Amino acid sequence: GYRDPITGLTLMGSETICSALRKAREDKSIKAVLLRIDSGGGLVMAADEIWREVKLTRERKPVVVAMRDIAASGGYYIAAPASYIFAQPGTITGSIGVFNGLFSLRG
């Protein structure tokens, strides 16, 4: 993880999370995975990589997602393939949206 110098929070990116999920998936002594999400989103590619690892892990053992203060956009997306999803009453979640545009200069 990476410690944010402003907030002091430890942040994890897709490489760290994907690696941890792969290790947990292969470790026979681990019976289930708890993934705590507190994220407003991020890069689409990173979220998709994590989503895939959550899905592959769930095929072998339960994956439990615990949403913290916010699990929006990519945070919400990576929770989707989990076995169980729990949120706090005040968790801000949802908002998977993709905007794509195509410009045409023809009449």
Report what the structure shows.
The protein has 107 residues and is of the alpha/beta class. Helix content is 32%, strand content 26%. The protein is built from three helices and six strands, in the order ββαβαβαββ. The chain has helices at 14-26, 44-58, 74-79, and strands at 2-3, 10-11, 33-39, 63-72, 84-87, 92-94. The strands form two sheets. Strands 3, 4, 5 and 6 form a four-stranded parallel sheet that branches. It has a two-stranded antiparallel ribbon with strand order 1-2. The radius of gyration is 16 Å and the shape is globular. The N and C termini lie far apart (52 Å).
Features:
alpha/beta, single chain, 107 residues, 26% strand, two-stranded antiparallel sheet, 6 strands
Average pLDDT reading: 88
Order of helices and strands: EEHEHEHEE
Q: Work out the number of β strands.
A: 6
Backbone structural class: alpha/beta
Please sum up the structure shown.
It contains three helices and six strands. It has 107 residues and is an alpha/beta fold. Helix 2 links the parallel strand 3 (33-39) and strand 4.
Topology:
Elements: E1 2-3, E2 10-11, H1 14-26, E3 33-39, H2 44-58, E4 63-72, H3 74-79, E5 84-87, E6 92-94
Parallel strand pairs: 3-4, 4-5, 4-6
Antiparallel strand pairs: 1-2
Helix pairs in contact: 1-2
